[in-house]
Queue: 3 jobs
Job 1
Amino acid sequence: MALIILGIVGALIIAAASVAGLLISAEAEMRERVGDASEGQPKLG
């Protein structure tokens, strides 16, 4: 029983970490685009 609980907790931690990584990369990309736009060079594509 304890192993099952540990497995579920581990899976949740991995899922949370991957979601956080996606959010961080998306935020960095948005900041990059905003920075380029403020410099007068918006990214295309």
Job 2
Amino acid sequence: MKKMKLVSFWLAVFSLSVYGWSLAGVLPDTGQTKCYDASKQIACPQPGEDFYGQDAQYAGEPQSYTLLQDGIMVQDNVTGLIWESKTNDGSVHDKDNGYTWYDSNRETNGGEDGTPGDGTDTEDFIKSLNSSNFGGFSDWRLPTVKELSSLLNNDTSAPAINTYFFPHIRQCGYCTSDTSVKDSNLVWRGYFWSQYMWDTPITPTAKSDRFCVMAVRGEAYFTNNFVDNGNGTVTDTSTGLTWHQEINVNKVTWKDALSYCENLTIAGYDDWRMPNVNELQSIVDYTKVNPIDGLLPVMAGANWSSTSANAAYAWSVGLDSGGIGQ
């Protein structure tokens, strides 16, 4: 969403405030290290100056990876997840392989199987990894939308990922295991080449489309646990973040949203700030039609994050849908 806009097409924007940035080793940082105004990169502002409080000024848990077994897998040292490394060798791991989304298990497919293929659907792909005991493991699976999102690096683009550890990332949608609860024919996908307003990194798309796939293994990503503090705030004990229970319903620019959050004093705290895109997405539950916990406020449309998509646009999260866009 353009930083100078009060309303981007039909999407109203507002700010949601959060204090604390000890992420308990769960949420990787977005990777953003540069600061921007509404149109260009700038020197990071000082407290009290316009555009102070953006993503680059609050460091989270740095993204950290380790290559395993000569690089056939990548371990995320923050989330603990282990990812399949894509290749360029024509094997089952080749980056150019495409798959339709298919899950024959009605308990996990959201009510719609998807499109089967003769060795070219996602279920076949995952079965092939597990039957071959790839990397010594037989518990490979598709990632959830939050797990795939955790790989996005907002300090680079095209692709927006650490290419040293993930060198073979295609310009295509990477599918997740999450069916859209609002339309069982759609599945959430991630896109690492987003740099223009029509490129949305996280959005639902038809299960019949062809996808890239990057398998993952490990304990499923964190589950939110919200606690009402009884003082107008809610703490998510899974991330260590505390959220303001009220929203600023006024339509504001990105600059004004940053300032609004920085100048709040609530529940005895004066270190409130605007959440980055990973933090804002963290409160979304993609398994529910109403994806935000009842303890938190929600308003239809896009909601500012402190993370810039590029010089003129910032990432926003639809808290009524879970989509991420500019």
Job 3
Amino acid sequence: SVSGPIADEVGFRLNAYKVKRDGDITNLTTGDDENGETAKGMRARVDFKPTARLRGKIIADYGTRRVEGPVLTLLSAPAGARLFGQPLAPALAGITPGPENRNIRMDTAGFTDSKNTSFAGTLSYQLDSHTLTSVTTWQDWKYNYVADIDNTEIPLLAIFSRGAFPGGIPMGGPYRSEMLTQELRIASNGDGALNYLAGLYYSDSDSDRSFTRGRAGFPLAANWAATTGNRTVAAFTQGEYKLTDATRVSAGFRYNRERIHVDFTDLLPAVPARFIGASTDDVVTGKVALQHDLDKAVMVYASFATGYKGAGYDVSSGFDQSRINRPVAPETSKAYEFGLKSRFLQNRVQLNATAFLTDYKDFQAQSSVVDPTTQLLQNAVNNVGKLRTKGVELEVTAKPTNALLLETSLAYVDAKIASYKNAGCYLGQTLALGCVPLGNGFVQDLSGKRLSNAPEVKATLGATYNFPIGDGFSGIANLNYQYQSEVNFDLKANPLQVQKGYGVVNGSIALSSPSHAFKVTLFVNNLFDKSYATFVGDTADLYGGTHHVLSQMLPRNSQRYVGLRVKYEF
């Protein structure tokens, strides 16, 4: 990074980075290492203050990233499994499915490419008793990916085309999103009993996506293109009033008007089928809070807030007029929070505690519904019912000496589905396990079940020690532990898609120059080499529904690795 003045009242800062990481999954078919990453980018910032009352900043970001994959490895593969009728066994040569399996056999491992460009500008003008602020942002994000439909080396396309086309069946396509936002606000200045702000907001976003499944020249299984957009205008206000020197009450409200539209073209038919739709929604959300200082070092608070997640269209393969007619309705929430923030022992100990409860209505998730026109059962993103999350969070920071910092946190979250009567059944679920007929298919009632990918307990524990080395140089040693309890990755509660609880230890030691301009850090992540997955999937539908072949996503941190980071500022 480089920083310094350009002229009087004008300064700049320039940061650049480059990342190259080798893959940690071996493709036995090609000999390549998958899940490797290359990335580079830069950020430029200019701060200026042309007058005593006017100041501003401009930030520009640019970055690119490519991942070779990401790929899934096999967690389990029952004997006799057949992929679309083809034996899986030959594709398992050299592979031992299991939690620590980092070998694959794939004919098309695929890739993901992304490029991001953004600009943000802020202007603030100081009036006698107020501050006017304008914030403008623009972002352009491009993304492209190719993946293999079956995650194996079995040449499905060659089999289906009787040798006319080699290899497997790829899927993917490009995506581009562009967004412009503008915010204007006015805020009061001073330390009076009443402080407030009010503002206006506008955003305009558009995205384009194309998707194919198969290869050109052979009948495609999917081929479509879609354009979606979102226009939002909002007005908001927030204020805080001091009832006494120790008690404050605050309230805020936001009016939001949102319009979404979609233009979807299915290119598979001889005459492409086009579906166009739009939807508009208005909503008012708000928050009220009360804070009270028990003394100078202890504050308690309570708040109530309403939330909103806008309507949308489930743009994916199978999109048709029924999804135009029934866009996904907005998701709303009511949140209650009570908390404590405190400092003790001459500010050497900080304790924060929070208790919360949030109720969601029209929770957005994927479910099975009966189309009222065709009476056929469809899987799509829909409003599936109600959800409640409640829990407590605790954070403690202690500094027993000037050189030693201790940190710990604990979160207990009970996330339960309150109402979800027409959820799809997981593969292999029987009538005895709650899978009942509906229309031309089967559904289950997930009311009372735990939300997917929501650990009940998360905890961290860390220590940082600063020590002198000599000649002005200093060292920093850090050791931390992170734990999370068991999760199920499937909203349908498939008991096979579970990651048991696990904990990971990371450590580092750093050397810093006297001016702190130069810093080198030696680190080790996952010190005890604890393997874990961030996703487990059941692909029994590709294996005739009779063999539960499980795949898993193993992140880079799921095995021990050592690295060196160098930072230099001038």
